[in-house]
Amino acid sequence: MQLDNPPRKPFIARGSKIQRCEHCLLHTAGCICHARHQIVAKVQFCLLSHPYELYKPTNTGRLIVDTIAASQVFHWSRTEPDSAFIKLINDPAIDPYIVFPAAEDYQHRMVNFREKTDRQPLFIILDGTWRQARRMFRLSQYLQHLPVISLNTQRQSRYSLRKTEVSDQLCTVEVAAALLEQVGDQHAADHLDSYFDLFNKNYAESRRF
């Protein structure tokens, strides 16, 4: 699923009365769509998004789709996964990895990234709060065969629009940028970081309206 026309539901939290851009969801005075530009990266991204996440203006997953070509978004379901997602992760031309912190109980699934000449790397990011992502990882039987890759980064989060459940936790777009650095694609990481910085700045300023 692409985010050009994302499904909507009423947004009734703080800031719901703000006049927002239909795409970036920022205040129209701080719209960042003029800076939206996709580049081809060494890897592709797939967001498996919790049903509540895409409707939040503070969601950063859409920034990945805006900047990294061939990125895709699918809604997560525990028992009824999107058939297009299942087809994607089983495509012999795709080399899928699920991104999640290391743990002993699935140590056998943990791998280091190694680029394959005949397959396109695909990093699957679980897009939601830490509690939601952990539930998505544990309860989705259709993900259990996938290798798991974890971040190896010293990055500190620059995201201040939400309180995190885990100390020093990176937001979704920061995870993607760290992964790009991890696989040696600094150009794409910098491109994503730049767009994220603009989002952070304009969103913070929009709270004054």
From TrEMBL:
Its EC number is 2.5.1.25. Signal peptide: none annotated. One of its GO terms (biological process) is tRNA processing. Keywords: S-adenosyl-L-methionine, Transferase, tRNA processing. The keyword tRNA processing applies. It comes from the Bacteria. Pfam families: DTW. InterPro entries: DTW, DTWD2/TAPT. SMART domains: DTW. This is tRNA-uridine aminocarboxypropyltransferase. The lineage of its organism: Bacteria, Pseudomonadati, Pseudomonadota, Gammaproteobacteria, Oceanospirillales.
